[in-house]
Protein 1
Amino acid sequence: MMHIRDRPSFVHSAALVETEQIGVGTSVWAFTHILNGAIIGSRCNIGGQCFIEGGARIGNAVTIKNGCSVWDGVSLEDEVFVGPAVVFTNDRRPRSRAMAPSRYSTRRWISPTVVKRGATLGAGAIIVAGSTIGEFAFVAAGTVVTGNVPPYALVVGVPGRAAGWVCECAEAISFVRSRARCDACGKTYARAANSVHRS
Amino acid sequence: MMHIRDRPSFVHSAALVETEQIGVGTSVWAFTHILNGAIIGSRCNIGGQCFIEGGARIGNAVTIKNGCSVWDGVSLEDEVFVGPAVVFTNDRRPRSRAMAPSRYSTRRWISPTVVKRGATLGAGAIIVAGSTIGEFAFVAAGTVVTGNVPPYALVVGVPGRAAGWVCECAEAISFVRSRARCDACGKTYARAANSVHRS
Amino acid sequence: MMHIRDRPSFVHSAALVETEQIGVGTSVWAFTHILNGAIIGSRCNIGGQCFIEGGARIGNAVTIKNGCSVWDGVSLEDEVFVGPAVVFTNDRRPRSRAMAPSRYSTRRWISPTVVKRGATLGAGAIIVAGSTIGEFAFVAAGTVVTGNVPPYALVVGVPGRAAGWVCECAEAISFVRSRARCDACGKTYARAANSVHRS
């Protein structure tokens, strides 16, 4: 018997999907273009007007809202949420290729970006290449991420600055003597040095 | 005799318009996708590469430039101007749906946004869900709006901060003893407490 | 014999190119719409989901990544790099046209933007109309440019502020007694008053 999650992927008739590496139950909406070589998991929802380049890796159950671009060198782990108009990058010092043909003749110019499991990237966030965004981190809308973001951290602003911590359910949590309990869902956390984990 | 404003709506052949609730004289440009259930008034101009979701409500004579997304829960009143790449949102604590299936099983997660008559949202502005933007307010390009904006207010920055007042013609106005007169068009305003109105 | 750069322009079958003023060897990708009256040079690479309006002028060897809008009044000189989701504008005081029909009845409302040769506009940058961005300047990702940017300048933030200088190869350079040498490529520069040039 076919599990509901085993439905084949849905590709809108006005989308262009050139990769064959796309999991079951993934949807791709209109005017999105996914190039050959992109790797996309199962049960994702990829909104319209997105661009996903060969070399991008997207896990399972990832949500990508409309108007995002995901480049070669960008990896999104399972259950990541990417808000509308989020912009990834893969080059810290871009110039027009005609100015720097030797630089672009290999792939060494690519700085990889990793977004860990369950993280949220808010609407219009910009992720400067070379950043790792930790598990369940929450990048507020409009943030420009210029470096690594710890797990469970909330970052806001231009450039992005630490502004607190969030629960896996996305509500803000506060630590008292290195312990926190989410008022909304009851999950508990422990903080050690600069890292936070479930307790 | 047919008034010039009674022309039927124009839908570019590369646009997808699934709603039937769209007024006369409205134009929709290429690679824009409007879902069933969106309500759109008359004489609007909706640029290309936009996404308008079911549940969005758009008044008359609204301009939406290219690359905008308008979600369920967002209402734009008459004569609003939405610059290119403006990003609306409807969820203050988004996560991938697989992480929070019960949260997304009802519509209570939606925080509504209202943009009142005549307001301007500058290019690339990001509107965090739950905000009301007052009549004729002017959100500068690149502003991240995180709360309510009073009528006739100018807001700038990340997060958006009050930076002055504007006339209905969009020029800056300055109050002297609670009175202002626009140097450009002559309209006059009175200010009481934190509100501004035509006088 | 045909030089490799003399290949005809490539237009993706899902792009709409209405201008005939487009140079040899230029590529245009899916879901991009270029209007009649746009002028585009040779050897450009114009990514998908872009919009280029009549009156826009784009030089040779310009790179434009996905999701950008380039309006009437915007000029990009040769070898400019425009990152993904960069937003140009051409109106400093926009309102819905229905509110200001006389204003929009001529073209005097357009404030021109010029991006000089070799400049980089980072991902998601917003360029407020009326700005001139100097040769080889580097606008960091997420910057809101609200005025002129000198040649070779690095600008960051909202609003954009001067944050240093860059080499033509895009690496940061530092001046010592009005002289700088790029550690990466060896190019040398001289600084006089507020201007920088190759020495």
Protein 2
Amino acid sequence: MRIGFLGGTGEEGRGLALRFAAAGASVLLGSRSAERAGIAADQYNMTLGRSLIRGTSNTDMLATSEIVYLTVPFDQVVPAVLANRGDLRPDLILVDVSVPLLFREGRPEYVDQVEGSNAEALAQHIPQEIQLVGAFKTIPAHVLSDIDTPLFCDVFLCSDNGPALARVAQSVRLIPSLRPLDAGPLRAARILERMTVLAINLNKRYKKRGARFRVEGI
Amino acid sequence: MRIGFLGGTGEEGRGLALRFAAAGASVLLGSRSAERAGIAADQYNMTLGRSLIRGTSNTDMLATSEIVYLTVPFDQVVPAVLANRGDLRPDLILVDVSVPLLFREGRPEYVDQVEGSNAEALAQHIPQEIQLVGAFKTIPAHVLSDIDTPLFCDVFLCSDNGPALARVAQSVRLIPSLRPLDAGPLRAARILERMTVLAINLNKRYKKRGARFRVEGI
């Protein structure tokens, strides 16, 4: 399974790239500068102790990936996708992991979106034939990037495209101790994005860092 | 611990009353008609096999309870509280468990509230000195009322009143396999109420009935 990252040098991208590579996926880091992507890939491979991740240009990454994670800050997702619009193939699956959050007096606040959620806002900006899936929204980036810690939690997926959701679910199952759950249509992102605020509040209250969700009874 | 129910004859009230009574709390069902409350209490005591629950008038229930659960339909919470306004003592803790949901074409939808959540709407209608806590919002009523099934999940509490939240948390700990978690201020109800939509969507997708949440890492 070929998994690409548009903006894979932040904490979320790093965590997902490392975990997918360690699980046997073919991982491509994309960047405007192929050289910068190569440097990040080298660092990640050092962490892994094996050369499993390759850095390249966004154009090359988008041409050869099947599933592409958009791992840029939440307000950069739409610009980053639009900047690469010419390279989006119709059979590509884009995965939005973003959460629109701001901290006010030390407390996380969800930034209300006119469209309902960041995922729905993105959906309005990409060509209709591109398949869009929301995923990993409720798992904090620093938890993902601490790759020695098993996750033991659920990954909620949402999409208006059933086959795309199922394919992303398959990829999630590669990573040990993660369970993909079909949370419904893309508009479920309204709930998933807000759950991150709850996770951060729980971390603050209990002086922990790793709050994440599991569903009992499914 | 004396726990009262304003409107305890629905599924949510039934489940909570039975579980609290079985856990050793002193449970009072309140109703406009003391007689009707008595009939419901008799039925619940039959289920329990012991006479642990008492039915009485709302006035009596509010005079003698320490924590009062508002277990009426979501759009009846404010009217039910206002109807009993004269009997609200300042040291009373009211617990809002409501979730504003409607089903459209078989799909649950969160009914957006001007105030942000049903809990916040209620806060604007009760005297400021009344202590208000949101709780049990993410656990489906039919899961609560199936008292032979251990819950094994977390109860998220939210309140702008720390001591009231802590007291409700103490009461939640009476019930085996439930863990109370401090989810932050009352506005966290915006997240918790929406999580119920996610739970219902998961139940529909996976043909289950008992989806409920646990937090890993806390």
Protein 3
Amino acid sequence: MPPIRTLGEHALVERLRQRVGPPPASVLIGIGDDAAVLEPDRGTVQVLTTDGLVEDVHFTRAWTRPAAIGAKALAVNLSDLAAMGATPRASLLSLALPDAFDCAEFDELVDGYVSLAERSGATLVGGNLTRSPGPLMIDVTAVGAVARRRLLRRDTARVGDEIFVTGVLGAAAAGLEMLRSGIARMGVDDAAAACLARYESPEARTRCGVIVGRSRAASAAIDLSDGLADAVHRIAESAGAGVVLDAEQIPVAEGARAWASGRGIDPVMFAVAGGEDYELAFAVSPRRRGRFLGATRRCRNLQVTRIGRLVADRGAWLSTSGRLEPLPAGFVHF
Amino acid sequence: MPPIRTLGEHALVERLRQRVGPPPASVLIGIGDDAAVLEPDRGTVQVLTTDGLVEDVHFTRAWTRPAAIGAKALAVNLSDLAAMGATPRASLLSLALPDAFDCAEFDELVDGYVSLAERSGATLVGGNLTRSPGPLMIDVTAVGAVARRRLLRRDTARVGDEIFVTGVLGAAAAGLEMLRSGIARMGVDDAAAACLARYESPEARTRCGVIVGRSRAASAAIDLSDGLADAVHRIAESAGAGVVLDAEQIPVAEGARAWASGRGIDPVMFAVAGGEDYELAFAVSPRRRGRFLGATRRCRNLQVTRIGRLVADRGAWLSTSGRLEPLPAGFVHF
């Protein structure tokens, strides 16, 4: 396949447009004008987020196929919308492409992106293509909608709230370590394969965020892009509170437990510090616990675990059989 | 000043947040949560665009100060909103920063951005910061609002429409060539200084786009990011029409005329092919010409010139004393 630079921007935009299905009626103008135009959903507020992936910072092309890179660039944004309780409505894709990137890679990346965009409702409505004299960079802006009173914020937790988390933790961090160690994909067991899949193809908890937002049972929510430790630090800080997590309750992914244990690392510490699981954490007042758990039961077999609580004394702690130790700092992309 | 990588992402976000003033009431959640939340303007549709600048593709740090780079990254997006007739409401800023970028440069870039964001109404409500193992990259998403029936599209022109353009052309292209030639800024005359300023600090025609949109006098609009030739090609193509521009009417910037003439280049060809002027082109039915010109008189001393018309025969032509020659292709960033 020819390198994309032989095509030029207009031909590439046309190539991209052909890979995108017809938009829903709420998209008044999609790809091709100076800007995209959306009809806002009645009675909702507009939720906007942007996040990106940079080659050799967030992914390595030698390890990960373009389709997975494209989908992940959108998924990390969908996770931010989920943490607000917002339903995805549209997205914009900005690509800076190295000269050697070829058309097959471009098509694969776009297909991975568009496939998730169509499944999630985050219709691709616009974007930008440019060359990169350095790494491949993918910047995505996602747009969502939510009724104002169903919005989930991160700064509205209170002392006494319990902390809940979706899914299992540490899988993405273990998957990344496996790739770094040069693991042979064909030989891994199911638990390790789940870690690789979580790192490369994270799934945003859109349905759960929306359902919990609608239930109005959570006092705050945040996604775990930078890991659980970082997330609970932030929820606690903006509540002027501290947080204590119960080590025995942390749902560590099976493959992450095996990976960490095999290397003499405490699996719980590994799981709480590891980033990129893209699960959600919620703060919930104990008197709303029943309503919250009732709502989460409708989140399609998604495990939800109570792992700790906000306390009056500042600081962030992990409690193991009553012994407290400081929570590690979050995962650092920078 | 220390390089930004010694600070980490959280500290940088905090540094950025301190440089942004309090947002207007329509911004329900600004910087600091998982996503930004806006209250949509009643009776409007939502206009979204994304565009970016990549070091050594769109700018060179040796030539241009960080404040100008930050402002230009937003301005190119405001130009897209202007071409839709939309009023800027919010923006998101995504930065991929090289390791050697230092805090003073970061502050300057952010200040340049924020200053224009506040002047234009495109309040900075969110973004993303990451490292770049290569060039500095700045991706911006701008959000605007416009009443649905005042929206300007690019694909709604008709054969017989006249083409108008704002401002003067070729200045940005001449400014770029001057910088490439290693011109000494201190020695240039006013006309050349205007070219440098247009290249480095383009001004989006926001007020003009909004006023023309409100007048409902234009049948189509587009901005000149890739030059006039490219813009009129696109307007004509999506109308299934051709276009003839009148060479004598093209408003060539004085500095561009001098630059091109001095190098044996036809100034009109230079001006119509050159990109990055960020002026607007409009297609206007002759029976709405009066209304259109009446509206543009309210665009704060902005020159608006009739330069050609859409014709039934496909193709794009420049007419010089009745002799037709093909319009050059547009400016290519890719």
Protein 4
Amino acid sequence: MDDRTHVVIVGAGFAGLDCARALAGAPIDVTVIDRNNFNTFQPLLYQVATSGLAASDVSYPVRGLFHDAPNVAFRQGTVHGVDWDTRTLLLHGQDPMPFDRLVVAAGAVTNYFGVEGAERHAFPLYGLTDAIALRNHVLRQFEATEAHPELVDEGALTFVVVGGGPTGVETAGALTELFDMVLTKDFPRLDIALARVVLVEMSDTVLGPFSARARHYAAHQLRQRGISLRLAERVVRVDGTGVELASGERIATRTLVWAAGVRANPLAADLGLPQVGGGRIPVGPDLRVEGHDGVFAVGDVAAIGAGGSDDLLPQLAPVAKQSGTYVGRLLRDEVEEPGVARTRPFRYRDKGTMATIGRRAAVADLPLRLRLTGTPAWVTWLFLHLMFLVGFRNRITVFVNWAWSYLTYDRGPRLIVDGDDGAHRSGDADGHDDGG
Amino acid sequence: MDDRTHVVIVGAGFAGLDCARALAGAPIDVTVIDRNNFNTFQPLLYQVATSGLAASDVSYPVRGLFHDAPNVAFRQGTVHGVDWDTRTLLLHGQDPMPFDRLVVAAGAVTNYFGVEGAERHAFPLYGLTDAIALRNHVLRQFEATEAHPELVDEGALTFVVVGGGPTGVETAGALTELFDMVLTKDFPRLDIALARVVLVEMSDTVLGPFSARARHYAAHQLRQRGISLRLAERVVRVDGTGVELASGERIATRTLVWAAGVRANPLAADLGLPQVGGGRIPVGPDLRVEGHDGVFAVGDVAAIGAGGSDDLLPQLAPVAKQSGTYVGRLLRDEVEEPGVARTRPFRYRDKGTMATIGRRAAVADLPLRLRLTGTPAWVTWLFLHLMFLVGFRNRITVFVNWAWSYLTYDRGPRLIVDGDDGAHRSGDADGHDDGG
């Protein structure tokens, strides 16, 4: 082992895993480190939060991915620093881990932009435990309101989502569907029409980066489903009883879903790496971190240039996957063809973006200026998400769940798994209730 | 509503739900109360604990069961007492709930029999959160041992199961299978042969109430799978580093699975009802609680006579289901045929018992003295458990999971969902980490 290059990948998200996959079978020792022993398929987290899928449907044990790749090891642990002199990573409660090459793929954390009370009271939707905490919380509001109908006036059935990007739009749409199709049957003694969703977006449109057609379709569909759109509006304060908007309006609510943005994982700072906007690590055209030999950053934690301009690539799954694969191949080439310098810079191939509002209602901006809305976009969305889900078994159970929901208008695991409702904080390694 | 009889059922386990089912559609108002909003299919909890099934596969939202029964309501809440004068149940944080008839179906809790350290250090396996806590803990031992191989000597890979009944046997067998078929591939750098399971049973045989053939087959299969059987042995002390047996032997371990027995839910005491051995509520031949008009006890919380002798029926799922259905029908007859006194006493129909040790290895003692072992018993077990699972969707996903595991020797959701490993206590309403 000792004379083989040791690549350490921090983070088992899209970027880290695709990097490791590209290195599977190479004459290189690879260790993937993550604080969780599973990978989370983040694009479907909102379905866990809205009782559409089980937690296990969107999570896959990392070790299971590398049964056939003896050169790829996994280590569950939390990195808290680095010793650049000895080139070793420092882990909580574990021996330091030496590396020859380091790939930082630590992803992002929720960005509350300093909004007062948000860190304490808002529900993020970035990790698996976030999704489960939100699911528990939403269902608890209905249980509580059935027992105490006067809670409606305190906003128990008012759900505010902040952020009009895909996550916010999808969460708002899925919440409405959960209420109208399932909870209306679960709670026949409650007037479900009292449950409402408010979507707050800072700009004057939802799905900002999408085509005009997609934006208009999405806004129309959201409104048609009874969602109040507050465009060109911001949340300035949140507490346990409501949110306050920049316009001065106050909405009584116990639920603020925070889909307003992310910033790079603070690990970038812990490692003493340079940082630019949003805490992201600036990288060169081949995703190397300048001034640190053999260190790369990929995915959400990296500030990857869009090429040609000063723009950065967005923090999206496809960028993460492609950048991870790129670095994996680069490191592989380094070892397998040591003389040949790899000079082709990373180039992102934009295969389009999609978002689902609900049953047979989605938008998809695809390559070749193909703009789909409605059922065709929805079917495309379903197909692609099933295809990209990790693990054949996950695909089957997700397919069963989706088919069931579509045919019966019923939903899956709307379980409130006990745990402290107050402890719904996201973050890196704190205690969390969880279920599903 | 006011002139209709109001039946309150405390507990949404097998007994409570089958009671409610028998009352569905009757001219009676029914309220089912449970501290969880879901029913747990307890016979398969050991598969959740051993990463075979997801938590959502063995849980079903109670409200979803009664969409077509407008007379059956659900209330998530915890009962802490009763006012017999006003015939109202007292709930934590909710208005008291009046009842005309009360069915106590609160089930059981783990019985530690006063063994020193057990309540604090042992892992029970009675509720969903127990199963998830055990799963997390087991997987964490392997992650920790890979990082710190010296932990093997401290017993990190030694798993002690106490109790040789079906739960203990099934858990021991499933743990071995998890190690030999899955974790050996997940942890190629660990010598999985170091992982061992010890099954401690007080009597001189496993599966005591089963036929001799079943007992011998089970003991043979367990031993063949490398499980150490300690028969006629007891655990007398447990702490964070090991267990001490009555013989004086000390086994270094961090994991003691407590499958040694249950006692009635302490709610029996909170309600001031009479109690006999194990805290169970004595009932008459028609499952009424003596001295309390219109109060019934069913399932694990009840001491139901076996008829003809002083023996009590065992605390098993079939007894719970049948006793629940009996009381449901009795209450229905009371209202639908008010003049006709129902006099036929409850009679338990023993349809046999089963236990699975592993792949194609099970025992089934069926009616007509049909004794199955091996593959026939295993297929019977699979079929009956699928049939009795609540919810068609659960059946499909469980079937997919089982078929997948059988064909690929792989397992499902071996996720460590974060949470405080120390907080693995069972019990009634405490905070819990959970996952799956």
